[in-house]
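Lecture notes, continued. The same structure-token format from the folding unit now serves as the input rather than the output. Read the line below as a description of shape only.
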């Protein structure tokens, strides 16, 4: 019995990420859990209200998932601004199916993001108004952005009146004795 020695071409790619000619494929890249988004970039935004009293949001999506949120509301003369993004130092993001949960650090609240074909709905869960708006109270309710529409749908978010002297829980002026 005679053994023949046949030269074998290296099985791996010549450089990291280069196509492997023997297999005709790229080496898969490692994906950090929940932080790397792939796909088509998209921007959505909407506004609801008047110049003196309004809510608006701008959302950056990658592959249909939210990468960053910029929420702004105004009760003249006061304003509120919340900006969070994946992999920032202020929040943690967990994607499960058609829902993303964003938990703000230091127990400052959470967002639940629900994705549907034409809408992205944000559920605000006790977002600390002091941290983001400089006033007492919590932001609770929902805001829905619809693709192709510049008008938001709101429930509860703008119900409280942060005017000085009002009760943030009810938006009512304190009762006075006559």
């Amino acid at each position: 019995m005679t053994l023949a020695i046949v030269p074998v071409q290296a099985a791996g790619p010549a450089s990291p990420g280069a196509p492997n000619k023997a297999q005709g494929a790229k080496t898969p890249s490692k994906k950090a859990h929940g932080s790397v988004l792939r796909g088509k970039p998209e921007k959505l935004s909407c506004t609801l209200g008047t110049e003196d009293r309004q809510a608006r949001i701008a959302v950056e999506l990658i592959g249909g998932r939210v990468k960053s949120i910029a929420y702004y509301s105004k009760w003249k003369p006061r304003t509120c601004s919340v900006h969070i993004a994946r992999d920032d130092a202020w929040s943690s993001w967990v994607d499960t199916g058609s829902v993303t949960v964003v938990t703000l650090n230091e127990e400052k609240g959470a967002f639940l993001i629900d994705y549907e074909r034409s809408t992205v709905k944000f559920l605000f869960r006790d977002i600390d108004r002091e941290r983001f708006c400089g006033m007492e109270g919590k932001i609770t309710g929902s805001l829905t952005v619809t693709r192709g529409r510049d008008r938001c749908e709101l429930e509860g978010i703008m119900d409280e009146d942060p005017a000085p002297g009002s009760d943030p829980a009810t938006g009512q002026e304190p009762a006075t004795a006559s």
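Point for the exam: The domain at 41-155 is CATH 2.40.160 (Porin).
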